[in-house]
């Protein structure tokens, strides 16, 4: 009888292949800017409502000729101050939370989990600390009369962008140019 030879389908000492599904790539296109819908019913609310009762749609409905008038500046100042107060409250909660969780846990896995949660919370607070600095700078720009205008070009930033990011100091185009430079040349 002859012995059948077994031929390996792969080299036994070769690295294992990994399975990767190829996803067809599509060309990325720049997002199409959509115009913000101004609600005509709210067009004059900014004239009658107190600043603390104005909402984002009320400010968006304001005519372009009223860009960064006293009401808009007061609205954004209040928005920034509320954001700052919320962050400071969160920071106080973090301090209390870290004090409460100083219990000694004998299990190393549990202790590692608690330490990782603390590290994550501290990283979050560090990001908020940096955002607090930007909030204070934005409030200073309101005081100086520069809020709402691009630092590089002097063009209006736009109410819609300021609603999304009240600390914005660059227009969308200037921000895109800066990010492209950072991507190409590094920080």
Describe the overall structure.
52% of the residues lie in helices and 0% in strands. With 187 residues, the chain is an all-alpha fold. Helix 3 packs antiparallel against helix 4 (108-144). It is extended and about 65 Å long.
> How much β-strand is present in the residues?
under 5%
Which structural category do the helix and sheet elements fall into? mainly alpha
Radius of gyration over all CA atoms, rounded: 27 Å
- Please state the overall shape, judged from the principal axes of the Cα atoms: extended
Count of helices? 6
Residue-averaged pLDDT, rounded? 78
Strand tally, please?
0
- Biggest sheet character: none
Order of helices and strands: HHHHHH
- First-last Cα distance: 73 Å
- Ranges with pLDDT <50 over ≥5 residues? 14-35
Binned, the helix content reads: 40-55%
């Amino acid at each position: 009888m002859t012995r059948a030879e077994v031929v390996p389908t792969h080299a036994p000492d070769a690295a294992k292949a990994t399975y990767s599904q190829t996803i067809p790539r599509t060309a990325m296109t720049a997002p199409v800017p959509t115009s913000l819908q101004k609600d005509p019913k709210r067009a004059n609310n900014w004239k009658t409502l107190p600043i603390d009762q104005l909402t984002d749609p009320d400010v968006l409905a304001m005519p372009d000729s009223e860009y960064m008038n006293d009401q808009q500046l007061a609205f954004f100042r209040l928005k920034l101050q509320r954001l700052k107060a919320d962050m400071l409250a969160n920071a106080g909660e973090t301090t209390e939370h870290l004090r409460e969780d100083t219990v000694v846990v004998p299990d190393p896995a549990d202790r590692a989990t608690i330490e990782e949660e603390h590290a994550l919370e501290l990283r979050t607070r560090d990001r908020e600390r940096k955002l607090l600095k930007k909030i204070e700078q934005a409030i200073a720009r309101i005081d100086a009369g520069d809020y709402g205008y691009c630092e590089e070009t002097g063009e209006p930033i736009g109410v819609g962008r300021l609603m999304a990011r009240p600390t914005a100091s660059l227009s969308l185009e200037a921000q895109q140019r800066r990010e492209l430079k950072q991507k190409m040349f590094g920080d």
